[in-house]
Amino acid sequence: MTRRNILTNPADRDRFLQACVALDEAGSGLMASDAYRMIRGINPQIRMEGIDQELSYYDLVVLWHWTAMGLDLSVGNAAHSGPIFLPWHRMYMLLVEQWMRIMLDDSDFGLPYWDWAADGELPQSLQWRTQLWTSEFLGESRARVVSGTLARMRVRLDGINRTQLRSIQPRPLERNAGADREPSFRTLPTQGDITGAMAEPFYDRSPWGAGSTDGHRNRLEGWVEGPRLHNRVHVWIGGDMGPGTSPNDPVFFLNHCNVDRVWEAWMVERGRVYEPGPGVGPAGHRLNDEMFALLGSTMTPADVLDVSGEYDYDTLQVD
Fold first, then answer.
1. What is the pLDDT of residue 106?
2. Which stretches of the chain drop beneath a pLDDT of 70?
3. Which of 13, 34, 255, 259 is surrounded by the fewest CB atoms within 10 Å?
4. What pLDDT is attached to residue 134?
């Protein structure tokens, strides 16, 4: 199975959009109150407010990501701000991809990616007006998404912060692309940012946290001179891509699929190495530590370093 560029593969685009809507329209049978009890058992600090309603399967995917962000580890949290960032999201997307295959009844489906660095080379005034932000693709880049396939999706879970969640009256997706309050954040990452991440000779290093050192993971996540790369894409899109419930917007998966592609390209050049190794470094981030899985079976970073049996990319040319 091959993951391809969404802008150059209409069939992959259409299947991806269809799968997102199908997951969002399929009731899981789990009420918001049931979900609250479940995640409170994982993290007693969590608080949830709002209406009680049935959650969709897509909502459960959103809930998993938000819950992981609220689980503090010795460095960062269970999905971000430490070495675990890249392997955790690889595990996460593997399960989402499997669910989408079931919804589509298509065992060959692969998540597409968005090469945002290519768009980052465009003039600022054009970056939020590309083909990606039309009804044929993802819909509006600014304000509510009311055109195209994704106009059918509804947001039901909205993150207030890492431990406070709201179950809200279902509403359309919201974006604010390229209009951040900080002018310097109104552009996408560039090819130069990718080149900098690819040039790092090591995956990560002590003290392991966000922005504390260089390293491929830290640069690709976007903490070094940040927000850059992955972080910059979230900030640039804004709206529902801002809080921990950011998977509400399917562009989340296009972003992370591209991040994963860059990581894969780096491993092809540097070797399938991961730091910290077994038994060293911060707990929860080590090579053989189990990663947090609200859905599906857990994995370790070691389990996802080589996914050649699961998928490949149409190209690993990233810079």
1. 97
2. none
3. 34
4. 98
H helices then E strands: how many in the chain? 10, 9
For strands 155-159 and 164-171, give the pairing: antiparallel
Q: What does the block give as tokens for 70?
A: 């609220």
| pLDDT score recorded for residue 211 | 77
**Count of residues for the chain?**
319
Cα-Cα-Cα-Cα dihedral sign, residues 160, 161, 164, 165: positive
Pick the CATH number of 2-313 from 1.10.1280.10, 3.60.40.10, 3.10.310.10, 1.10.3720.10: 1.10.1280.10
pLDDT of residue 53: 98
Cβ-contact 249, 240 below 8 angstroms: yes
- Bridge-based pairing of strands 312-313 and 2-3 is parallel
According to the model, what pLDDT value does residue 54 have?
98
- What pLDDT shows up at residue 191? 97
Residue with tokens 């069939």: 11
Element (H, E) at 55: strand 54-56
Neighbours of 313 (CB within 10 A): 20
Rounded to 10°, the helix 85-104/251-270 angle is 120
Its sign, for the CA torsion 52, 58, 64, 67, is negative
Query: Model pTM?
Result: 0.98
